[in-house]
Amino acid sequence: SADGLRLACGQVDGTIQLWNVATGQRMATLQGHADKVTSVAFSPDGLRLASAGVDKTVRMWDASTGQELRSLHGHTSEVLGLAFHPEGHRLASVSSDGSVKVWDTLADQEVATLKGHDIPRKGWAAIDAGAWFAVAFSPDGLQLASYNNSKRAAPKLLWASVWWGLPRRAWRKEPTASASCPWCLRRTPRLLAASA
């Protein structure tokens, strides 16, 4: 979490473990996903936790009680990465179906779908076992970047200028150097870093 007090860990059994960082004690076990949890993200205010899974869903949780608040459906394949918008109500998800979706988590609805990852066939197993996808908003919330390193699809960065949650323009930029598994993306106002 942003305050550094809690740690969320997605598990292969579909659960999410919440831990108290200071004491090392497990605070809660969240259950709801039907398959592996692939990504977790705390909201900027730390009140909510988002999770993504192989079951093609994005789920929202109360980070204090562990209660599931809602389930977001729309991706047609595994959801592999999540990022909250800095204002906290928008959430981006990236999937092996080749799309990035932006959700309004208060209205429980999809507000934008961005396509640019050219995946030959749908599905985690159909791409390759080492493929990873990542997504990140810029600190000012005006740009969104996503990345994939699938060996069967050329790595691409997908950019979108976002205003009130809707893309004004989108374009792709080929990375200037090959990259291995991007465990995370981080944005500064002028730079994008992909960590392998």
Describe, in short, the structure shown.
This protein is an all-beta fold. It has one helix at 124-127, and strands at 6-10, 15-20, 26-31, 37-42, 48-53, 57-62, 68-73, 79-84, 90-95, 99-104, 109-115, 133-137, 143-148, 157-163, 166-173, 184-187, 192-195.
Essential attributes:
196 residues; mainly beta; 4-stranded antiparallel sheet; 1 helix; 51% strand
Can you give a write-up of this model?
The chain has one helix at residues 124-127, and strands at 6-10, 15-20, 26-31, 37-42, 48-53, 57-62, 68-73, 79-84, 90-95, 99-104, 109-115, 133-137, 143-148, 157-163, 166-173, 184-187, 192-195. It has a four-stranded antiparallel beta sheet, with no helix packed on it. It starts with 5 loop residues before the first strand and ends with a strand. The chain is mainly beta. The chain is globular and about 45 Å long. A hairpin with a 5-residue loop joins strand 2 (15-20) and strand 3. The chain has one helix and 17 strands.
Structural class assignment:
mainly beta
N-to-C SSE string, H for helix and E for strand: EEEEEEEEEEEHEEEEEE
Number of helices: 1
Rounded average pLDDT:
77
Termini Cα gap: 22 Å
Helix content: under 10%
Number of DSSP strand runs: 17
Structural shape: globular
**Could you give a short account of the major beta sheet?**
4 strands, antiparallel
The largest beta-sheet arranges its strands as 4-5-6-7
CA gyration radius, whole angstroms: 16 Å
Uncertain spans, ≥5 residues at pLDDT below 50? 122-128, 160-184
Strand content: over 45%
